[in-house]
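Problem: given the chain below (116 residues), write out its structure.
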Amino acid sequence: ESLGAVVITGKRSNVKRAKTMMLGFLETVAPTGIAKIKFLKPLLKSMGSSKDVAKLSMDSGCIISLERDICTFFLQAPSSNQLKDGMEAVESTIKECMKLTNVFQVESWLLQYLLT
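Solution.
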């Protein structure tokens, strides 16, 4: 097993799109070992610290990294059981943070209707 990295350069919007596509590709190639969990941007402040991510990783047994650009947790695990535990830990953390943060999601068509 060897370590590697993928470096994506370019305009910020293109890099975000490429990261999203790359994570989706990795998730389809190895569905039992890799997962991604998206969350809303306002939650980034309350759960985006390195300390919180490291604690989640230690508790679940997964390798968890946070992609701040695209508000996504990226999880890796050697077994599907560990991956499932990691996903449950991340999802419960997101739910806890949602309770502490007032986040309203509004569809664009509804926003246009309300503003006119």
